[in-house]
Design goal:
Number of strands: 14
Number of domains: 2
Distance between the termini: 36 Å
CATH architecture of the largest domain: 3-Layer(aba) Sandwich
CATH class of the largest domain: Alpha Beta
Low-confidence stretches: none
Strand order of the largest sheet: 3-1-2-7-6
Length: about 350
């Protein structure tokens, strides 16, 4: 690496930068809020999934220090770790233009500061990397021009966490990339591939077990950011298809899922629910009665279980339904404590979720 000159910085704001004071203060507040939200959500993981908690800790550590370089025309945001050192939140000011400062960004490490050049406008992350024989344990660096509209939004903690949690829950080989943008693209790509695979499966699968196996491996399609819990035996008579627990909800919200065949008839010609639909509904009611009578038992099996859970029936198709038939299903969902989704509903909701990730 070519020897670089460190630009002059100060802990006092120069008069030339005071015009941007409001934006700088907003970033400071957003950054505090960002990590507060991250830690609040992470606190739920330990009880649910120790492995997920460990993986998330590697991306969103608990002991992060923050350093902001407020330059002449923009800001650099550093998030970093110094092990065995107290966390810090520092702001330094420089009259150097942002694009020039990016050629030699001072990075704090356990062995002192060193300078690295960084591209402007991206969000880069480094985990256990080595630069010129200096080990970087964990570093996230991003830069924004003051005039950039994204500056006032910076990053949404829940969106960031949402993306990574879903990536890990739905891809056992998930690895963190160099940039958050790269990670996001890779995660969305995996989701789209699963959606396409599920759509193809629905076209040919007539065996409930085939679809159930796929959904067991890919709970994202039923409920984003949820962890699947294997079949639960309820007494001697009933076994759930599977149970989901929403990882990002406040508290532990469970959903008991009953999966029916994709060719299950839903409505008769008179727009009455079919006997097969009513059988699935009765299955849910049987579960509910059993759970209410055996709360102590189920609370010992499912951590932080609260009665009643959510109930979900999945079955049949609605792509060829008329609007009148769809209205009956909507009315059913409005008036009942049980949610019913066709496989087409499932596809549509999953597609909308992926689109929301792309839009954020």
């Amino acid at each position: 690496m070519v020897k670089q000159e460190k630009f002059k910085i100060s802990s006092k704001i120069p008069s030339e930068i005071r015009v941007y004071r409001q934006k700088i203060d907003k970033i400071v507040k957003l950054e505090h809020r960002y990590w507060k939200e991250i830690q609040k959500k992470k606190s739920l993981f330990k009880e649910i999934d120790a492995d997920l908690d460990r993986k998330i800790e590697s991306i969103f550590p608990s002991n992060v220090s923050i350093r902001i370089y407020a330059c002449k025309n923009g800001i650099i945001l550093l998030r970093y770790i110094e092990f065995n050192m107290p966390t810090k939140f520092q702001i330094f000011y420089s009259l150097t233009p942002l694009e020039t400062f990016m050629n030699a960004v001072p990075i704090p490490t356990e062995s002192g500061e060193f300078l690295i050049p960084m591209p402007l406008g991206e969000n880069y992350q480094f985990i256990n990397c080595i630069f010129n024989n200096v080990t970087i344990k964990w570093l996230n660096i991003s830069s924004y021009l003051y005039g950039n509209s994204n500056l006032i939004e910076i990053e949404d903690a829940l969106t960031d966490l949402d993306i990574y949690v879903n990536g890990m829950l739905n891809n056992s080989h998930f690895e963190v990339g160099v940039t958050k943008q790269e990670d996001k693209k890779n995660i969305i790509k995996v989701f789209k591939e699963k959606l396409k695979e599920f759509e193809e499966l629905l076209k040919k699968a007539q065996v409930e077990e085939d679809i159930q196996k796929f959904l067991n491996k890919n709970p994202l399609l039923i409920q984003p950011h949820s962890k699947k819990i294997p079949k639960q035996k309820l007494g001697e008579d009933w076994v759930t298809d599977f149970v989901l627990i929403n990882i990002l909800d406040q508290g532990h919200k469970y959903t008991f899922v009953e999966i029916e065949k994709s060719d299950m008839p839903i409505l008769t010609k008179n727009n009455e629910f079919t006997s097969k639909f009513k059988h699935a509904e009765k299955q849910i009611l049987d579960w509910d009665i059993w759970l209410e009578k055996n709360l102590n038992y189920i609370k010992n099996k499912l951590k932080s279980f609260e009665y009643p859970p959510d109930y979900l029936i999945i079955g049949g198709r609605s792509k060829d339904m008329g609007e009148n038939e769809k209205q009956y299903i909507k009315a059913y969902n409005r008036k009942n404590d049980i949610t019913f989704l066709t496989y087409d509903d499932l596809l549509k909701r999953a597609e909308e979720f992926v689109k929301s990730l792309e839009d954020n």
